[in-house]
Write a structure and sequence with these properties.
Radius of gyration: 24 Å
Helix content: 25-40%
Shape: elongated
CATH class of the largest domain: Alpha Beta
Largest sheet: 6 strands, mixed
Strand order of the largest sheet: 6-7-8-3-9-10
CATH architecture of the largest domain: 3-Layer(aba) Sandwich
CATH superfamily of the largest domain: P-loop containing nucleotide triphosphate hydrolases
Strand content: 25-35%
Structural class: alpha/beta
Oligomer: single chain
CATH topology of the largest domain: Rossmann fold
Length: about 325
């Protein structure tokens, strides 16, 4: 569905060349839901804009939905849906009219555009809002309308750029419910960017992490967390004099360079915390070190980014000019 090789995009800023995207290689199979993560300025949105033909690549190549993004941009656009970060509907026409007009712009007959508009109103639960103007809708309702506009011509591939940014938790959950429903009903391939790590973790079948214009990790959320971050075991001891012995015992169990100690607290990075904790407590007992508290925790995608770059995704939110 998407095959990109060496996609690069350079900008000139104050006579200096800035590489927003540096040789992206990406393949996305049909029917997948793929989330692209990275701090602001990492190159996420620039990559999407190239794949959707809104920006020409400086170098590299890509085919999207079977069409070359440079040689046949019109063919790409006819076969994809794109929902940008800003609202796509106008302010002066009714919701249903916006959908019909969008369908007509994609070459549908009036009758076909009417049918598709009605399907989208039902699929995204916009029927009660059909006669209202977009400017009167809530943020969550407008995002559902944006998604409907991106789907009205029934594309097999949908690009969503930060689809839930700025929404309250209930509206975000509502938008995700509809995204997952359209996948279930139509088998739509979805490539989206998001800075909500918990969304990517829970919803995406595959996570691609971009930093400084390059892909630095690619896989399922579970595999990335297990391979790159690992579970955490945290144990405190009663006496700081026991910390060094507890850390030495931990080094026999934890991943390489996976032990840290501070005060009376020892932290271990391990493949499976549920199995490692009993083993560690038994080893401490054998070493005559008494644990005061013990707990386990699962890693997050932010932990993955920290392991890869030495900083968190949250810390990078203010960096860069091109997203």
């Amino acid at each position: 569905m998407i095959h990109a090789r060496g996609l690069t995009r350079r900008f000139t800023v104050k006579r200096e060349t800035v590489e927003a995207v540096r040789g992206i290689d990406l393949d996305v199979e049909a029917g997948r839901l793929v989330a692209v993560l990275g701090p602001n300025g990492a190159g996420k949105s620039t990559t999407l804009r190239m794949l959707t033909t809104l920006l020409p690549p400086t170098s590299g190549s890509a085919t999207v939905a079977g069409r070359d993004i440079v040689a046949d941009p019109a063919g790409v656009r006819a076969r994809i849906g794109y929902v940008g970060q800003k609202n796509g509907a106008g302010e002066n026409f009714r919701v249903r009219d916006e959908l019909v007009t969008q369908g007509r712009c994609y070459g549908l007959t009036r009758a076909a555009a009417d049918r598709r508009a009605d399907e989208m109103l039902d699929l995204l639960e916009l029927r009660p809002l059909a006669a209202r103007k977009p400017g009167t809708l809530s943020g969550g309702q407008r995002r559902r309308l944006d998604i409907a506009l991106g789907l009205v011509h029934r594309p097999g591939l949908l690009f969503l750029d930060e689809p839930t940014t700025g929404l309250d938790p209930q509206s975000r959950a509502d938008v995700w419910e509809h995204i997952l429903r359209l996948r279930a009903e139509y088998g739509t391939t979805i490539l989206l960017t998001t800075h909500y790590l918990e969304e990517a973790d829970a919803m995406a079948e595959r996570v691609v992490v971009i930093d400084h214009g390059r892909i630095i990790a690619d896989g399922t959320a579970a595999r990335l967390k297990n391979d790159l971050a690992g579970d955490r075991v945290t144990v405190t001891v009663h006496d700081a004099a026991d910390t060094a012995r507890a850390a030495a015992v931990a080094a026999r169990i934890a991943a390489p360079d996976g032990v840290s100690a501070e005060g009376v607290t020892v932290r271990l990075r391990v493949p499976r915390a549920d199995a490692a904790l009993p083993e560690y407590l038994r080893a401490l007992e054998a070493a005559r070190v008494k644990a005061a508290t013990a707990e386990t925790s699962r890693p997050t995608l932010d932990d993955v980014f920290l392991a890869l770059t030495g900083r968190t995704l949250r810390e990078g939110d203010g960096e860069g000019a091109a997203a």
